[in-house]
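User: Structure please.
Assistant: Input sequence and predicted structure:
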Amino acid sequence: MMQRRTKDVLVVVVGAGFSGIGAAVQLRQEGFRDLLVLERAADVGGTWRDNTYPGCACDVPSSLYSYSFTPHHPWPRVFAGHREIHAYLRATADRWELGEVLRFGVHVKRASWDRGASRWRLETSDGDYSAAALVLATGPWHRPRLPDVPGLDAFPGPVFHTSRWDHSVDLTGRRVAVVGSGASAVQVVPAIEARARVVHLFQRTAQWLLPKPDFPVPAALDWCLHRMPGARRAVRAGQYWLQECFVLAFRHLWLARLLQYAGRAHLRLAVRDRQLRRALTPQHTIGCKRLLSSSTYYPACAKPHVHLHPTAVSAVHGEHIVGADGTRAEADVLILATGFHVGELPLSRELHGVDGTTLHERWGTRREAYLGTTVSGFPNLFLLLGPNLLTGATSTLTVLEAQLTYLRAALAHLRDSGAASLDVLPGVQAAYNSAVQRALRTTVYNAGGCTSYYLGPDGRNTVCWPWSTGRLVRRLSRFDPGDYRCAPTRGTTAPGRLPRPAPPDEDGAGP
């Protein structure tokens, strides 16, 4: 029987969303030309490819939600919609000529560390791959969370999650039930209520909302941002510091409670009905759950044909949706705005480290990594947007680019030192995570009086960064080889060794 040929690559990146595209660009800039990006879908985009529901948009200003190395894009609005963001990612991939390293339709089934060769062995739908370094850019917003509700599978009409929107279903004149009150529900309800005959919104937990100053970007301002880099940097810096004010409030409960006055005022101005306003008023401190912003959600909830049910869904009986408080609503279409399995990294159950243990087994209920990027026992593995790096307000691209700086430095050290592998020391990882958990105790993420996807089954916060964004950027800007066990190569031609970069092509790469 003929043995399958293994494709040997220096670096494999899994995923072609913001993280994967950013990693490919930055590593090629560092001189690592022998890399591939494996993407399961047929296009780049990640969550912005998958989420196409009406009203889907970013909660962070567009100027912050873009790469620093591809800063300008003709954003039509202050907060870009999913189509514009997806188009931006496609344009970025084209601008930096990533077509030659992108491999679509490739599903990574298993990855194992080969101690003898100091390489990762990947089993994929496209055959076997071998890589000296493996970068997981699969993102935390990947697998939809579907509610375990008796009778849901017997609902007679269309049922779909917001991230798997069925565009063949016409909502015009129909009775629509929306389950959930998080970010996707806040966006989708105002976008569909005008078409539906009636909307039933099942809200398990009321959310804090602040106004969203979204408006079209004037042509003159867009021209200035394109022609005047200084103006673009000033706008980006101003929006960064505004977001950082929220991060500061979330680190101090008394400041967060002051911020709630803005949330209460927003609710009072938009909703006059006292009973409805009471049902929409959260019982936890702002920032305990992901902060949401919308100037259209409260007015939509106040419409006479939109009915808020402040209860979880306990069962589905035919076309009747039954709340935990006994209320019932009839619906023709059921939309699940129930979020994602943020706490579970895709591939964690199929990723085997030095002793054969999977990453899922190693973590158990405690997802942790060093600087959210490397995990002891998994050499030359780098996680993007890994554990305890998000703040609830900062642009994820700020975090991502800080990580990419660290990734570049780590792989450059491997290349320049001639080492075969880097494995973070267990004591270093443990000490770092102990400090993170101690600092989180007094933040609103942990002490705000709610349950959220920030917290794991044991109550441990596996998502949030407890300090300022500036501190995060500074920590990730410096790679210290002393934090790692560096395994030497077994000779100058060892397969795990990263070679020095070849001279760039005469025309260069990128713009």
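The CA atoms of residues 342 and 453 lie 7 Å apart.
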